[in-house]
Amino acid sequence: MSDLGDTLGRAILDGADPADHLDLVRRTAEADRATGELLQQAVHAARAGGHSWSAIGATLGLTRQAAQQRFGRDTEPPDQPEDPENPEDPKDSEAPEERWLGPVTAFDEMHELELAGRLGWHTVGAGLLRHRVVRTATQWEHRRIVWTGGLARLERDGWQVGCRAFPWVYLVRDTGEPAQPAPTA
Questions:
Q1: 52's torsion region: left (phi>0), alpha (psi -120 to 50) or beta?
Q2: pLDDT > 70? residue 25
Q3: DSSP readout, 1-14?
Q4: Residue 95: left if φ>0, alpha if ψ -120 to 50, beta else—which one?
Q5: How far is CA 175 from the centre of its chain?
Q6: How are the residues of the chain apportioned to helix, strand and coil, as percentages rounded to the nearest 5?
Q7: Nearest CA to 12 among 3, 1, 29, 2?
Q8: Tens of pLDDT along 74-105?
Q9: d(CA 114, CA 139)
């Protein structure tokens, strides 16, 4: 087993009763889902970084077509149908304005997020070549870091996690300054 496999095995067994086989199955399935999500995010990051489906497939031991079929799907959930228990029109609610920002790549997303931040938008989610952003009345700063662990120092400086998209963590910080008005045509 690889070092990574050993690390995952220890994480699965940590605090578990090795004699409780069903708990081990549940914990291993949870690890499988988590690593599957990380792989999906890593493939999206590679695509956003300009890598071809052929290169990704070769890295994974798959054909180009198999890689594209497995990982090329949009992973964002579809818009939810209206809740019959709460028929209020979402456009009439007090919910903040949301939209998708994109297409963006690893090369231009930070510039685009900077521009959006001045207008009061900040990231709350990331998908393939796009960011889900929410608008507020204040300007926002954005920062992208490698997902390595401790964020305490950054949180003390006012940064908060906007979203995680392996291998990145996107941090946002409210500047407290009023958002600039949107440019008019």
A1: beta
A2: yes
A3: --HHHHHHHHHHHT
A4: beta
A5: 22
A6: 40, 25, 35
A7: 29
A8: 544 444 444 445 444 445 556 789 999 999 98
A9: 9
Q: Which two tokens stand for residue 43?
A: 């493939």
The Cα diameter of the chain in Å comes to 68
User: Which among 175, 172, 116 has a CA at the least distance from the CA of 144?
Assistant: 172
Given a contact cutoff of 8 angstroms between Cβ atoms, the answer to whether 23 and 31 are in contact is: no
Nearest partner of 147 among 165, 168, 126, 162, judged by Cα:
168
Across 171-178, average pLDDT:
97
Global pTM reads: 0.62
Return the domain boundaries, the chain.
3-71, 95-178
Query: CB within 8 A of 34, min separation 6: which ones?
Result: none
Give yes or no for a cis peptide into 96 (omega within 30° of 0).
no
